[in-house]
């Protein structure tokens, strides 16, 4: 094992040998179920033969054409395909290589559009706490997750935040439209506090990702957010990096509420683990205004890479051919049933939530008060380690500060079937038994 390579920590991990469908094998021959699709990325499963064939075919033609020199057929075809899936009027696609880049691009498009409208005083981007929008400094400035942003705070322009609507922690009924209004109106209050003419945009994950553990907005929230943005001339950015591509049971997460944003950030399931790929999708009139004013001052060398776009196109074709969006909805319901059954047996599971196959459960010391488990129990990493030992990969986060506990995302590829869900449920059960044996209450 080399020590030249490093990531966040010294955490040793086995070498990956191969992966197929929802399964992965290390070089020692141990099999794992990819119960989190990596980081909610491998949405169509590993080693899909049609995607691999499309990539090989493209490799024989070209693997790079710099965008200032050439247009490529796969990038044009993919942009056209994506625009067929977006809300009307949101048809312009700017390719990038990942989620942080997609978010950065949306921020810059918003700002440049405001300049074309004579609104140079608009620069503030309101976001939520907790939230995650990326690791680059621009995306981190609007990310509501102190453990990742705190060391860099002095290097970033501090941006305003409102609380994410964690109705379950506040003892509110998420199905009651009054709850949605209560949380959405916090955006209006923040806009008024900041000065409406200074606010450029609001960014929201339609269903929360790792930061909130698959938080589903309360009834009416997304619609009211749209109204408020319209009222104050604030651009609405949907961060669909994790939700886009079908994971929630609709191609875009926001389709559940029938709300169209002004800008969309897309990645993860778009390249589905085959290639680094993302996109920023913008309103047609915004793009025209920015291009008329001299051009979009932004770009990445690898944007629109033909190999990445050919893979992305093949991923979309597989999603449609196998109706993976429909399967995510159906298997999401079936997995929710299994997680709720687990919750019945383990009182330490205080909440099960999510949409489609973007699902999470949260451990709590007390279901009624929602008190989190003690921090030194390190439940978020311990349960993940136990499951990993047992051959199941799940993804966890502890949102420190406030009344939020350890949550675990269970998000297998959208190609998963019922017998495979049974395997996942069986390993989760075994892992919970071990966790409880280590931590008797
Ligand atoms: N936005 C959301 C909602 C995400 O979940 C992530 C990654 O987890 C990002 C942005 C950043 O994406 P990337 O890690 O590809 O830069």
From TrEMBL:
SUPFAM superfamilies: PLP-dependent transferases (SSF53383). GO terms for molecular function: pyridoxal phosphate binding; transaminase activity. Keywords: Aminotransferase, Pyridoxal phosphate, Transferase. It holds the Pfam family Aminotran_3. It comes from the Bacteria. CDD domains: OAT_like (cd00610). Its cofactor is pyridoxal 5'-phosphate. PANTHER family: AMINOTRANSFERASE, AMINOTRANSFERASE CLASS-III. Belongs to the class-III pyridoxal-phosphate-dependent aminotransferase family. This is Aspartate aminotransferase family protein. It comes from Neptunicoccus cionae.
């Amino acid at each position: 094992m080399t020590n030249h390579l490093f990531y966040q920590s010294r955490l040793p991990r086995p070498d990956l040998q191969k992966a197929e469908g929802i399964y992965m094998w290390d070089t020692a021959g141990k099999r794992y179920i990819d119960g989190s699709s990596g980081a909610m990325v491998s949405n169509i499963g590993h080693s899909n033969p049609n995607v691999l064939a499309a990539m090989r075919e493209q490799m024989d033609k070209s693997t790079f054409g710099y965008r200032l020199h050439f247009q490529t057929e796969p990038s044009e075809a993919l942009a056209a395909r994506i625009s067929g899936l977006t809300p009307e009027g949101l048809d312009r696609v700017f390719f990038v290589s990942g989620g942080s880049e997609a978010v950065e691009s949306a921020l810059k498009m918003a700002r440049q559009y405001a300049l074309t409208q004579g609104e140079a005083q608009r620069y503030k981007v309101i976001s939520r706490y907790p939230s995650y929008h990326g690791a680059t400094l621009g995306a981190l400035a609007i990310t509501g997750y102190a453990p990742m942003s705190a060391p860099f705070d002095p290097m970033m322009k501090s941006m305003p935040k409102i609380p994410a609507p964690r109705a379950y922690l506040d003892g509110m009924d998420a199905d009651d439209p009054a709850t949605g209004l209560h949380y959405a109106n916090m955006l209006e209050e923040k806009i008024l506090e900041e000065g409406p003419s200074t606010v450029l945009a609001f960014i929201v994950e339609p269903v929360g990702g790792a930061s909130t553990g698959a938080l589903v907005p309360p009834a009416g929230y997304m619609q009211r957010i749209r109204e408020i943005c319209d009222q104050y001339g604030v651009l609405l950015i949907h961060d669909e990096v994790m939700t886009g591509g079908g994971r929630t049971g609709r191609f875009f997460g926001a389709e559940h509420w029938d709300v169209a944003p002004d800008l969309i950030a897309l990645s993860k399931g778009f390249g589905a683990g085959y290639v680094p790929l993302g996109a920023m999708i913008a309103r047609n009139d915004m793009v025209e205004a920015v291009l008329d004013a001299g051009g979009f001052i932004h770009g990445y060398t690898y944007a629109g890479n033909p190999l990445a776009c050919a893979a992305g196109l093949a991923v979309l074709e597989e999603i449609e051919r196998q109706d993976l969006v429909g399967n995510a909805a159906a298997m999401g319901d079936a997995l929710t049933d299994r997680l709720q059954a687990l919750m019945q047996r383990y009182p330490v599971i205080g909440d099960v939530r999510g949409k489609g196959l973007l699902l999470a459960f949260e451990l709590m010391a007390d279901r009624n008060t929602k008190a989190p488990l003690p921090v030194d129990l390190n439940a978020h990493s311990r349960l993940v380690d136990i499951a990993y030992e047992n051959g199941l990969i799940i993804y966890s986060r502890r949102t420190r500060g406030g009344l939020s506990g350890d949550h675990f995302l269970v998000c297998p590829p959208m190609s998963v079937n019922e017998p495979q869900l049974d395997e996942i449920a069986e390993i989760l059960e075994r892992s919970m038994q071990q966790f409880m044996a280590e931590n008797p209450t």
